[in-house]
From TrEMBL:
Residue intervals of the HAMP domain: 309-361
Alphabetically ordered keywords of this record: ATP-binding, Cell membrane, Kinase, Membrane, Nucleotide-binding, Phosphoprotein, Transferase, Transmembrane, Transmembrane helix, Two-component regulatory system
PANTHER family according to UniProt: SENSOR HISTIDINE KINASE YPDA, SENSOR PROTEIN KINASE HPTS
Species lineage: Bacteria, Bacillati, Bacillota, Bacilli, Bacillales
Membrane-spanning parts: 27-51, 281-304
Entry superkingdom: Bacteria
Name by which UniProt lists this protein: HAMP domain-containing protein
Membrane disposition: Multi-pass membrane protein
């Protein structure tokens, strides 16, 4: 009996091997070997050709941009140097002689240039004497004793023509400054500056849609770019690409990078081309394989006919099971005992269903963790320019008013400690308002009588639980944009409970927004991705919706020259059950 069983087992084993070997030989002889050879040859040829094309075009475009930028900025540098040494300019500053030719020389020079820069001539007190724009740059605003940015660099290096990158908050903001001090009898008597706005520089380098261009200073800060995704939160080029050339692997893609330094290494030109184009090669290979497999299907049809007939029932079972999965039913199991590849497939299918169900549960947990991670990331975004300006103010206060400087340091310390405390996500509104007072104290000291604020919070609203840093970013945004073309600014903070909703309103009497800008910001708030410079409003709105749902968030209204009102709606939550 055992012998009979053994014989049947050997016979079954032989049939199984015959079936497997027959299929293998058919595909090896008629399909696999030709496909492998043709696919490999096509892939290598296409890869080599495409790679050489990408490298060549990237390099040529980099050289073109570098020559264009170098020539334009170099010409402005030469003009600034020439005008700073012009006798008429020196007489104008020293003796206050009017000189119409001096005005004409500026306008004639700028009008001849492909890229128009705003020009200014300041005296040593930063009073504008000649100007092409009514908007005075931030680096020339304020008291002459508190010089910073390009003015400070020209004062420190009066013999050189300086290049200075400016933080461009809008597309029309200055992004790069060329400047030269005017030295008369060994003394700096004035300054000449040419400002290039971000929009003009971007237009200058936006000639090729398939290649991204980034212009940085020698510290990696971005002056202009055609792809904001390549700029990090500090305003620098992504660390993956800084000072790199050749193929650079990033988180989401591979890029071919060419980097060129110009103007004595003061400026770097990066051109980046995505080499994800190789996916098109995969599509081409797929088409070739499809054609080959079509031919193989025809040649193997007759030989596979009997096998297909004998396996029809199993295949039908597999198809029905797959249809159940497509309809969302993950409980359908395959029961196949054919002792061949279909049984292996059925076992793998059953294992796959189990893995899919486990993966779904894992993805749910991961999604929850991602929401928490995004909230933490949004909380941690602190404006570095505010910190820089505050530290600069403290640096001068240490010399002139040590006691006030000590107070300022304590306030700044409290402010930073509160903002970077990752153990706290939600706080009482009263605590957040107290934190905001520290921020307002610093801004009040910085702007003096130009800035004022009022706080009106109902007693019932003080103990409501709100997300940390809910008020300060809105005020920061109001100060940043409200002072445009304004000498003074007043900010009002109000909070009250309306029915089952906590309403926080921050309004200012600043410059307000044009309808197009207001519409753009509202569009950003309606989405969940922000690639603009409006970080404060978006962060508050996004955090509120992540924590409490899309029913709550930020509502914005503004009139050009008529101020801005930001309304934040939150559920009433006093530390226990939420009222909503």
């Amino acid at each position: 009996m055992q012998k009979t069983i053994k014989c049947k087992g050997e016979e079954m084993s032989k049939k199984f091997r015959h079936y497997r070997e027959g299929i293998r030989k058919s595909f090896v002889i008629y399909a696999i070997i030709p496909v492998v050879i043709i696919t490999l040859a096509s892939y290598l040829l296409s890869f080599s050709s495409l790679y050489r094309t990408i490298v060549s075009r990237n390099y040529k475009y980099n050289v073109q941009i570098a020559d264009t930028i170098g020539n334009i900025i170099g010409t402005y540098q030469n003009q600034a140097d020439h005008l700073s040494k012009d006798g008429g300019m020196q007489d104008y500053l020293e003796l206050n002689f009017s000189n119409s030719k001096l005005y004409s020389s500026f306008y004639d020079f700028v009008n001849k240039m492909e890229t128009k820069g705003n020009f200014f001539v300041f005296n040593d007190k930063l009073k504008p004497l000649i100007q092409s724009s009514d908007h005075i740059p931030e680096y020339a605003q304020g008291e002459a004793d508190f010089m910073w940015g390009p003015i400070r660099r020209m004062l420190d290096m009066p013999e050189k023509v300086i290049l200075a990158r400016q933080p461009a908050f809008t597309a029309d903001s200055p992004s790069l400054t060329v400047g030269k001090a005017i030295v008369i009898k060994g003394r700096v008597a004035g300054y000449i500056t040419f400002d290039f706005n971000k929009r003009d520089l971007v237009n200058l380098i936006s000639k090729n849609f398939s290649t991204s261009v980034v212009i940085t200073d020698k510290f990696g800060y971005v002056i202009a770019c055609t792809n904001e995704l390549l700029v990090n939160e500090l305003g620098k080029i992504d660390v993956n690409f800084r000072d790199k050339s050749g193929v650079v692997e990033s988180k989401d893609d591979s890029q071919y990078v060419t980097r060129t330094e110009i103007l004595d290494a003061e400026i770097s030109i990066y051109t980046l081309t995505s080499i994800g184009y190789f996916r098109s090669m995969l599509i081409l290979t797929g088409v070739l394989l499809s054609l080959l497999f079509g031919m193989l299907t025809l040649t193997t049809y007759l030989s596979a006919r009997k096998i297909a007939d004998s396996k029809t029932k199993v295949i039908d079972d597999i198809i029905r099971a797959i249809e159940h999965v497509q309809n969302g039913n993950l409980e359908t199991q395959l029961k196949v005992n054919t002792n061949d590849e279909f049984q292996v497939f059925a076992e793998a299918y059953n294992q796959m269903l189990g893995d899919i169900k486990n993966l779904i549960e894992a993805n749910k947990e991961k999604a929850r963790q991602n929401v928490l991670s995004e909230i933490k990331q949004l909380e941690s975004q602190f404006n570095p320019h505010f910190l820089f300006n505050t530290l600069e103010t403290i640096r001068y206060m240490v010399k002139m008013n040590p006691s006030s400087a000590s107070t300022m340091i304590v306030v700044l310390s409290n402010l930073l400690r509160y903002s970077i405390n990752n153990t706290i996500t939600e706080v009482n509104l009263g605590d957040d308002v107290e934190y905001t007072k520290n921020y307002l104290f610093i801004q009040k000291y910085r702007f003096g009588n130009k800035f004022d604020y009022e706080i009106h919070v109902d007693e019932a609203a003080l103990d409501c639980i709100v997300p940390k840093l809910i008020v300060q970013p809105i005020i920061e945004n109001a100060i940043m944009h409200g002072f445009a073309n304004r000498q003074t600014l007043t900010v009002q903070i109000k909070a009250a409970i309306s029915e089952d909703t906590l309403v926080v309103i921050i309004n200012d009497d600043g410059e307000g927004m044009e309808p197009k800008v207001l519409q753009k910001i509202k569009h950003i708030l309606d989405g969940n991705i922000n690639n603009s410079s409006h970080i404060g409003l978006y962060n508050v709105h996004r955090r509120v919706q992540l924590i409490y749902g899309e029913k709550y968030g930020v509502d914005l209204s503004s009139e050009h020259h008529g101020g801005t009102v930001v309304k934040i709606t939150l559920p009433v939550n006093r530390g226990g059950e939420r009222t909503c």
